[in-house]
Amino acid sequence: MMPNHILVASEDRKVFLLDIPASIAAAQAFADEDNSSNDNLERTRLLSCTPTSAPYASTEPKSASARVKVKNHGKYDALHDIYSRQCEDALRFVRVAVGSGHFCLERQLNKPGSAPQKRKRATSPSIETARKGTDATPDPSKRLRCVVKASFPDDPPPSLLFQIDGYVRHRLDAKDPAWTVSSTLGEEKLYAFEVRHWGIGLACYQNRQEPLKICLKPLDRSPEVHEQHLRIPPGSAFLLGPCHVPAGTREFQGLAQLYTDSEDFDMIYLDPPWPNRSASRQGAAWYRTERSVYDMEQMLLGMDLGTQLKPQGFIAMWVTNKAACRDLALSLFKHLKLNVVEEWLYLKLAANGEPITSIGGLWRKPYEVLLIARAPRQASHPPPGVVRRVIAAVPDLHSRKPHLKSLFDELLLHDPVLGLPRSKAKVLEVFARNLTVGWMSWGDEVLKYNWQDHWA
Asked: What digits encode the pLDDT tens for the residues 299-337?
């Protein structure tokens, strides 16, 4: 029986229709995925937005000569022709499978008594404004970060109160940055570390088999700084900290050894903040992006991810349709001696089942590409042919993609080379915006969709 968030799947497992909010909830074990009647399960829904009802207005070149001029400047035009045919075939299958049904599940638009979420949000106030108590900033990760900053003054030594599920309270002090929380609920290791010019980062590895609830409270009980309630999925680890500074990388390596028992990862999954003029214009309201492809290259190389990957492990990386971004990903794979083995296309649909833009469009593609690479089993053997899959979904909040845990499990747990036991794949997600059951997640927005105000 398919999980609830997979609405359609082809027999060869190369075409899928997923529901984005439900896939994120399922990956965090915050949803009843098996339709069971277990009353102990905490049923909750991720807040979303109204799905786009029809395709966007066309921005394509009007004249034939203009189209020819644009197409002749495309480095990967032949590849995009292949992608277009793949998407068209997948869309035909999905439409037949859906029939008179819906292309996404019903969405939870808002909490009772509050306004619904919007797909585009106004620019948020500055961090300094948020630290003074303004409750208007739309980014919960930044709000959490501000709370942490406000609770960790330079003098006296920083400290913060953690309340775990209402049973245990512990104080974190800069002089004693690591401790173990022990209770009837299990044992978790929690850490804090200083990052210059950034503030305080938090790290946690929890080995319980049920979600962990955390309440962050300021010690001074200041009315301007509110409590923050978070839920941490079972068996997950996180590092709330920047990926672009050496201190963050050092802390990541220490936590990774704890999470993997000093083994390496079976997969490293990245959705990098590629340079994006649209996101940059919106400022902090959406997310931080790198200024240039060069800056992105320096950050990715500085993470030294190759030393954390098993010899036959996978690296999966989202790329934009900009040629320079794809070139950088391919050069990184070459640097790590990896070959692309699969390409997954995220095909964006309107609620009526039409692509949000023309599949054969020149200016704007209705799909994004996930490149999956690994080292060849023998260096002398030619790489196998690339397997392509299409994952269709109706977009919700800006830049939020379908969660791929269930599909990655199929890839990893059935891989004869890795030979992994059931449910034992060790996955690292970099630039994550939410936590995942059994994964380690790293990024400066890593708790964004674990914050209680994103759920109803």
From this structure: 888 888 888 899 999 999 999 998 999 999 999 999 999
Is the peptide bond between 223 and the residue preceding it cis, with omega within 30 degrees of 0? no
Beta-bridge partner residues of 203:
191, 239
Within the chain, what is the greatest distance between any pair of CA atoms? 71
The 10s digit of each residue's pLDDT in 361-388 is 877 899 999 999 999 877 666 667 899 9
Domain ranges for the chain, please list them: 1-33+44-52+96-119+264-425, 140-262+444-456
Distance CA(104)–CA(260), nearest Å, equals 36
- Beta partners for residue 162, in sequence order: 170, 216
CA 292 to centroid of chain Cα atoms: 21
Q: What is the sign of the dihedral through the CA atoms of 239, 240, 245 and 251?
A: negative
Q: DSSP string spanning 271-293?
A: ------HHHHHHGGGT----SSH
User: What is the C-alpha to C-alpha distance for residues 117 and 107, in angstroms, rounded to an integer?
Assistant: 11
Contact 210, 184 (CB under 8 A): no
Question: Strand, coil or helix: what is 8?
Answer: strand
Q: Single out the residue of 251, 151, 269, 258 nearest to residue 192, CA to CA.
A: 251
Q: Which residues pair with 46 in a beta bridge?
A: 455
